[in-house]
Amino acid sequence: MSSQPPPTPATPPHHQPEAPRDLVGIGIGPFNLSLAALAHPLTELDTVFYEQAPAFDWHPGLLIEGATLQVPFLADLVTLADPASPWSFLNYLKARDRLFPFYFAERFHIHRAEYAAYCRWASENIPGLHFGHQVDAVRWNPERDLFEVDFTQLDTDGEAEALGRTYTKNIVLGIGTTPYIPEPLRPLVEAPGVPVIHAADYLEHREKFLTADHITVIGSGQSGAEVFLDLLRHRPAGHEKIHWLARTEAFAPMEYSKLGLEHFTPDYTRYFHALPEPVRDRLVPAQWQLHKGIDADTIAAIHDELYRRTLHGGWPDTVLTPGVHVRTAGRVATTKVELHLEHIQQGSRSRITTDAVILATGYRERPLGQLLAGLDPYMRRDASERPRIDDQYRLVLDPSVTGAVHVQNAERHTHGIGTPDLGLAAWRSATILNTLTGKNPYPLPSRTAFTTFGLDQPPPHIPNARQRQAQVLTPLVES
Q1: Of 43, 68, 166, 322, which one has the fewest beta carbons inside 10 Å?
Q2: What is d(CA 121, CA 306) in angstroms, rounded to the nearest whole number?
Q3: pTM for the full model?
Q4: How far apart are CA 48 and CA 32, in angstroms?
Q5: Which residues have C-beta within 8 Å of that of residue 133, sequence separation ≥ 6?
Q6: At 291, is the pLDDT very low, low, confident or very high (cuts 50, 70, 90)?
Q7: Which residues contact 21 (CB under 8 A, 6 or more apart)?
Q8: In terms of Cα–Cα distance, which of 82, 151, 31 is closest to 411?
Q9: From the CB of residue 451, how many other CB atoms can be counted at a distance below 10 Å?
């Protein structure tokens, strides 16, 4: 039990409750950081952002040396909405006297560690960001026509220091995602001392895992590939002893063709949002290769490393098997883990014993239920009891609620696979700010893709009648 005294109610010095904010942001990851950066010059908006962590931190366990973003550097916090913003990646380089080195490096895809450093720089300089503040509850106060946001201010040790409340006209949720642990492996991850971790914690345990006799990596996405490659490069030739298992039918490359990438445009997001709910639910899992595949360069690097280990004869001691499902898992003796496997296509079963397991099994949206319990009577839900979210990224609430609750990276079921993509961060933030201000401070283009995704989706801008005639689709008539 903590020896700390109970937290005392306090009004933080940076805000008085009788002066309601225009916007409170909950969570400070890249998406709400983008919103804060674009909100910064809008002096008519009074904003504040709260984050439980003591400082900005972005996937520290996966900042593997040499790992790059899968989106261009233009997918920073602001550029695709405001290239002249002082919070752009290029301005970060200028502030660090690194523009010329970057110019000569000719890097379109920057290192992941560099992106994290850029976001940290922004988080340390944009005003109105409050780390060490854990938001506990959100409620609608009908008497004041405002939202109440209760929070706990934490000390440097993460202990409760003071309680506070902020009133606001609007809220934006950016609480991020949480590592996904498959059910059969959850007891092992939660048990102390068992060598089973999620890839989110890889670098923290890397040195210990490198000394394990046998290692198993589970997961076929980019994280699984990067972890496998890093382990492979640091294990002795002929004694690698690494299994790489995946549920998908192949260690497949991510779709990265120019027209394929148009699934990550606002045009496709609008098209997807307008589809019927059952169609959207079928589409998201079917599109896994658009966002859960492996970067082609990473696949090539893995093959090159494996091939290099055959130059003097023999094969590396590695097993790469896709199409495999982990049925159950358990401890063997005190230090080993036994995995019971099933091959999906063959219908065959097997088991392996390993000394360490790294789960590159991705992330899931963090549940909103507990945080938004106070808004539950006002929320409108779909057939699967998920929050309904409109095309402006707002929760659909009862009309009696005059404020808005916007969401960031919690709307995949309504907005599609582009939801967690960094390339849409600035666009979504600008859309939210345009909606809140009603003044369109960030004019956005009406068209962003060459592809027209539906027959009833006309091109948004047709300059003249001749072009209109050329672009009209003639309906097919069945005989």
Answers
A1: 43
A2: 38
A3: 0.90
A4: 11
A5: 50, 51, 52, 151, 152, 153, 154, 164
A6: confident
A7: 15, 46, 47, 48, 166, 167, 168, 169
A8: 31
A9: 14
Residue 8 has pLDDT above 70, yes or no: no
Closest CA to 115 of 57, 164, 200: 57
Render pLDDT for 426-465 as a digit per residue (tens, 0 to 9): 999 999 999 999 999 999 999 999 999 999 765 554 444 3
Question: Residue 256 is encoded by which pair of tokens?
Answer: 């990265």
Q: Phi/psi of residue 453, each to 5°?
A: -80, -15
**Which one-letter amino acid corresponds to residue 262?**
E
**CA 236-247-207 angle, 5° bins:** 30
Angle between helices 222-233 and 202-210 (to 10 degrees): 30
Q: Burial of 416 by CB count in 10 Å (0-12 exposed, 13-18 middle, 19+ buried)? A: buried
Question: What whole-number distance in Å separates Cα of residue 263 and Cα of residue 153?
Answer: 40
Helix-then-strand count for the chain, H and E:
14, 19
Joined together, the tokens standing for residue 314 give 């023999």
Q: Which of 414, 457, 418, 408 is nearest to 277 (CA)?
A: 414
**Tokens coding 41:** 């010059």
Strand partners, 337: 331, 354
Q: Are 198 and 359 in contact (CB under 8 A)?
A: yes
Q: Which of 437, 435, 411, 416 is nearest to 174 (CA)?
A: 411
Q: Specify the 3-state DSSP secondary structure of 398.
A: coil
Report the DSSP pairing between strands 129-131 and 47-51. Answer: parallel
The HSE-up count of residue 77 (CA atoms within 13 Å, CB side) is 31
The dihedral region occupied by 190, where left means phi > 0, alpha psi between -120 and 50, and beta the remainder, is: alpha
Q: In the predicted model, what is the mean pLDDT of the chain?
A: 91
Contact 169, 185 (CB under 8 A): no
Contact 195, 335 (CB under 8 A): yes
The single-letter DSSP state of residue 328 is E
Q: Are 188 and 354 in contact (CB under 8 A)?
A: no
Q: Is 438 in a helix, a strand, or coil?
A: coil
Q: Please give the Cα distance from 166 to 147 (Å, whole number).
A: 8
Two tokens at 355?
């000394």
First CA to last CA distance, the chain: 78
CA distances 371 to 21, 129, 376, 404, Å, are: 19, 20, 10, 16
60-to-55, 158, 201 alpha-carbon distances in Å: 12, 19, 8
158: left (phi over 0), alpha (psi -120 to 50) or beta: left
230 Cβ neighbours under 8 A, 6+ residues apart: 64, 65, 206
Which residue bears the tokens 């009696």?
400
Whole-angstrom CA distances from 195 to 89, 95, 189, 240, 297 are 38, 42, 8, 18, 30
